[in-house]
Design brief:
Strand 5, helix 10 and strand 6 form a beta-alpha-beta unit. This protein has 655 residues and is of the alpha/beta class. The C terminus is likely disordered.
């Protein structure tokens, strides 16, 4: 599967231009499509006019394209059912791939291979809006990919993505097909950003990158919707924030209607000039065209960039999570990443009662309150004795997927409940949690959750629990963390930044001598985990430390612990262990019994995650949602709003 990716490393790879608009120029009639029933279904031409499709592929190879896309953009059941032929999915894709493969073979030589990309479009329904179920969509893509792979494609192109959840369904369906057939090819994913600067549901480019990068696609890029001028800054953001190759296939400008027909104004020379800039200034490694681009456009692009080598992207944005709309870097500069836990059936009586009575509006109101108080993510736990976890997760995850601008933490002990939530979240969530309590064998909770995390591109909270029990000493916490880390990274392919270790905050309010050092051991455990497992994050359930105390005492004790664990962060990770509690240093250098301005108490019901990496390049940090830099302003990704955290109510009492 490396030929295509190897070529990108050697030089700029050039795709073909449009399929649909070039077929429209031929003014085909109903009979060409196989009758009035199929008129306009370009994909059906592989049966009725295969030579027309082959000639189009040849026209792009003739002008120098390295890759052509199969005529299969809409050939999966959701689209084909509108024409009454969903059962033809496999055969249409098989024939589309065979036609393109045959033409590619005619133009290939011993010194230059021509490639075929299996085109997979977004369809006509948005899963994030509940217009189609995730399983149905993934199954349709799986059938499409089986046909494409059997027909001989070299890579799969998930293109014109306007809903990230749809892209996840396509990628998961594709991988299931590859696994069944034993044929593995690269996956290239390309999103579509509207003139608003966002994808159709309102997704920022930073959120798209976080979500797709976590799905381990081989190439990330953009196509359709706009011309190159409108696409430029989004491409710049991608090339500055990922080491994965970046692709650009813009339209031939913005369409207009001339004499009752769609017209694209961008000339071949203008497209070539834009692509030369994308390659030379930004390091785009794959170029081509979308709607309105003809062989003449691609010929000009070939002349402009042929033989050039795109600059390598050495930088990856720090690990992050995202909602459907925006991204959040787990790394914070002056603050910490807070998880609001009031939407938890075991921790909030109000939320539990609303959930059990199916008052979803109150549940969403509780989630919104946490946004106002400064949460960076929302913990969703529906586990409660006697409740239907799957049904409750279905109801709440489907609503929060579009109602919440914050990433979601799916909190459950049941894998099937967690997967129900994953099938509704287009962004990148966090799974809470895994441990080694029942070992690491097949079917254990650790095994099930890590498989789900890898499949759906989620991050994972790992608690320091092994088969001996809850780790209480720093050494024990480190040992449990190391064991989980080894399994997660070597067996499941997780990256260090995918893991958030919870070293367990235990109450020191019991009055028992054996609990006296629990807080100190947690603080030292954080330091040891970060020192020994570089790149991972740590996360604590802050208010556990003060369980059973008065609200006023809880606020003070929670604040002290927050200050201490935050000081175990990356700039101080190599300090000597804390032996005994002592007054905190405020930012003026004086000693005080309460935190200084930088060591504020967590808002009620918030769990802080402590950073292990520097903030996103150009980002503002300090609790701000991740947007990423524009090249000039270095403030945020194109289309991103300024999401500075509003001041919260800084108290640390019980939820």
């Amino acid at each position: 599967m490396s030929d295509y990716l190897d070529l990108i490393k050697e030089r700029v790879v050039i795709f073909d231009g449009a399929t649909g608009t070039n077929l429209q120029l031929l003014q085909l009639e109903a009979d060409d499509f196989g009758g009035a029933q199929f008129e306009g279904l370009n994909e059906h031409l592989v049966f009725t006019r295969p030579q027309v499709v082959a000639d189009l592929h040849a026209s792009f190879y003739e002008v120098g394209s390295d890759v052509v896309e199969t005529n299969s953009f809409g050939s999966f059941p959701i689209v084909l059912s509108e024409y009454g032929i969903p059962e033809a999915t496999f055969e249409i894709n098989l024939e589309a791939a065979r036609i393109a493969r045959r033409v590619a073979s005619e133009f290939s030589s011993s010194t230059r291979k021509r490639f075929v990309a299996g085109s997979m479009g977004p369809g006509t329904k948005l899963p994030s809006l509940g217009q189609i179920g995730f399983d149905e969509l993934a199954a349709g893509y799986k059938e499409q990919v089986k046909g494409l792979l059997t027909g001989g494609v070299d890579l799969l192109l998930v293109e014109t993505v306007y809903d990230l959840l749809g892209a996840k369904a396509a990628i998961i369906g594709a991988r299931e097909a590859m696994s069944e057939l034993g044929l593995w090819v690269p996956i290239q994913a390309q999103v579509t950003v509207e003139l608003t600067g966002r994808m159709l549901p309102g997704t920022e480019i930073a959120a798209a990158l976080i979500s797709l990068r976590a799905m381990d696609v081989d190439v990330i890029g953009m196509n359709c919707a706009t011309g190159p001028n409108e696409m430029g800054e989004h491409l710049r953001y991608l090339t500055q924030n990922t080491s994965v190759p970046v692709s650009a296939q813009p339209n031939a400008g913005l369409p207009s209607v001339v004499d009752g027909k769609m017209h694209y104004d961008l000339t071949p020379e203008q497209l070539a000039r834009a692509q030369r800039r994308f390659v030379g200034e930004m390091g785009v490694g794959v170029v081509g065209g979308c709607c309105g681009t003809t062989p003449e456009h691609i010929s000009a692009v070939v002349e402009a960039v042929s033989g050039q080598q795109a600059q390598a992207h050495a930088f990856d944005a720090p690990p992050g999570v995202s909602s459907l709309y925006s991204a959040a870097s787990i790394s914070q500069d002056l603050s910490y990443f807070s998880v609001g836990e009031r939407t938890n059936a075991n921790g909030s009586k109000r939320f539990r009662e609303a959930m059990l009575s199916q008052d979803w509006d109150i549940c969403l109101e509780i989630a919104r309150d946490q946004v106002g108080e400064g949460a960076d993510a929302i913990d969703l736990c529906v586990d409660y004795t006697g409740a239907d976890g799957v049904a409750d997760m279905e109801a709440l995850a489907s609503r929060l997927a579009t109602a919440s601008t914050l990433p979601i933490v799916l909190d459950s002990t049941e894998p099937h409940v967690v997967e129900t939530g994953l099938k509704h979240l287009g962004g990148r969530p966090i799974l809470n949690s895994v441990n080694l309590e029942d070992g690491d064998g097949p079917g254990t909770r650790l095994d099930s959750f890590l498989r789900l995390a890898k499949k759906y591109g989620a991050a994972v909270v790992a608690t320091c629990i092994d088969q001996e029990g809850q780790a209480r000493t720093a050494e024990w916490k480190l040992r449990a963390a190391q064991a989980i880390y080894e399994v997660a990274t070597t067996r499941y392919g997780m990256k260090p930044g995918d893991l958030l270790f919870d070293p367990l905050v235990l109450p020191i309010s019991t009055g028992m001598e054996e609990s006296r050092r629990d807080g100190i051991e947690t603080i030292e455990g954080i330091r040891r985990i970060k020192q020994e497992l570089p790149g991972v994050f740590t996360l604590v359930g802050l208010s556990n430390i003060s369980f059973g105390l008065s609200p006023a005492a809880r606020a003070v004790l929670n604040s002290v612990l927050l200050g201490r664990v935050h000081r175990r962060g990356p700039r101080r990770r190599h300090r000597a262990p804390i032996q005994d509690p002592s007054p905190l240093q405020d930012r003026r250098g004086g000693e005080t019994g309460v935190p200084g301005p930088y060591l504020r108490p967590a808002p009620r019901g918030l769990r802080p995650a402590l950073s292990a990496d520097p903030p996103l390049r150009g980002g503002l940090g300090g609790g701000q949602r991740q947007g990423g830099p524009e090249p000039a302003s270095r403030h945020r990704a194109p289309g991103a709003e300024d999401h500075r955290r509003r001041p919260g109510k800084h108290y640390g009492g019980p939820r």
